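Quick illustration, no need to memorize.
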Amino acid sequence: MILVDSSVWIDFLRGTRTAEADTLSGLIGKAPLLVGDLMLCEILLGVPTEAEARRVETALRRFEIVAIVSDAVAVQAAAHYRALRARGITIRKTIDLLIGAFCLRHRHTLLHRDRDFDPMQTHLGLRVLAP
């Protein structure tokens, strides 16, 4: 399964041409895509009107929505943070740690456009879909 980060969904929904948004476009209808509840929230936070929010939510609900955070994922995310900090690497956003831990725990591949995931790929084995 491929979990798509909000960094990619936002570009895709705005029509911004990036390699990752183009990859997502090519995957729709051809690969099993997941939308995390945290991503759903992040995406809808940036939508200016209720009508647009309903349209975006309806579009995203075509895909499976998954709950990212559980107690096990939270504990693992904190362990990953400590492991990376021991290497001198600080992940800027807690949400990214949770997303990375979720993907690692469930063996999902992540499609993203966010540098916070790079150390998780390099040092923790996070599987990433390269555009």
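Residues 71-86 form the longest helix (16 residues).
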